[in-house]
Structures are given as structure tokens and as C-alpha cells.
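As a warm-up, study this chain.
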Amino acid sequence: MTKQNMKAVILAGGLGTRLHPYTLFMPKPMLPLGDKPVLEHLISWLYNNDIKEMVICVSYLRRIIEDYFKDGKELGVKITYARTNTPMGTAGQLKSAEKFIDGTFLCVYGDSIYDFDVKDMIDFHYEKKALATIALIPYKTTLKYGFIEIDENGLVKEWREKPTIEGLINIGCYVMEPRFLDYVPKDTRFGMNFAFDKAIKEKERIFGYNAKGTFIDIGDKKGYIGVYKKYLGKLGDIV
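Now compare it with the structure written out below.
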């Protein structure tokens, strides 16, 4: 499988419970961001990275997604749908697309927006002969509480007021070989972290790729509203 005909699997079947009530009648990937839904931004990014064929894993309110994008022709892409009756977790959703996967593929979360060169990540994956490659970006956050360290007798040894934690985080974008799906049980609700844990314990070649770019997660109400306001600002003032 070459970069020119690589497929992307988009995971878009979650319940989006952290975004209630917005997601009671609308799947999270279809929430508006500027003048189009989050999922359309993601598809445009894939298209701009020369990925024109994709499988969208759907479940919750799936007809809203299917009726909007149909076969993808209007966006210049080819879309196939992998359907489950109930949400299956990230890896469980991915497993539902197994019959459509015929080579190295890209897997992305449908509620995220990316801005980095995924073609370089694919090159990295091939160079490392990896089973799976995880896109990572640096992240720093300051905790809002002070951490108190005590000994076995309760004696305070250290007070760290609002410590800063930093490191590399998973942004929900992977390059994978089909064999990775051997680590995901069929018809089972299963998180992606469990699948990776199983592969790592088996000493598989799992690599992390430091993505040079940005990532937006439409994860909860506060995050979504903040991102929505930024995109609205790009449209300019309404006269």
C-alpha cells in the first residue's frame, strides 16, 4: 500500500457524553465549527494530504453522518461506512472496519482536527518497519491544586504548589498495519489503549512520531465552545 492509495479509517461512532446536551440529537463529529461540521474539516485535511479513500466507523445517530456525506463524491473522496449497533470503544470501532482494510492505513478520531504533514509520519512508519505509529505532540499543563507528599507516618515532606506537568500526548492519529487488529477482540467494547498495551507486551514494533503541527480536540463543552469562538472570529464581524 503506497501513500497515493492509502485509506483512512475515521472513528465517528462514540456517544459524546461529555458534550451533552449538544450531542443528544447530533453526533459529536457533526457539531459545527465555523461554516461546516468538525468531520468535514477532518476530511478536508485528509484530502489535502492525498488521502482520498476513507472508511467512517459509525453507530450513534449514524444516519446524520451518512445523509450529510453520502459516498463523499461532492468532497472529491470515496467514503464507505462500517456500522455497529452500539458504540464499541475506539479499538472496537476500528475492528468493525477490518473487512475494508487491505494494507497500511491511517486511523484518526472523528472529533479532532489536525494540522501537520501526515505524509512525513507515514514515511517514518515505513522506515521504522512499525506495526503501529502514534502521532504525539508536546503538551504542558499546570494543575490547579497543590500536591502534598507525606511519609508513612503522615509527616509532610514536600509541598508542590500547582505543579506543571509536561510531556508528549497521544492525539488520536495512527498509521497501522492490518495485523494490529489481531490485538482487538471481535464484537467487544475495547479501548485503543488496551490494544496498544497488548501489542507492546508482545514486543511489537510500536513507535511514537513527534508531529510538527497543531491538534484541536472537541472533547467537552468548555473546549468545544472555546474552539467554536475562535473559528467564528475567523469569519469576521457581521455587518
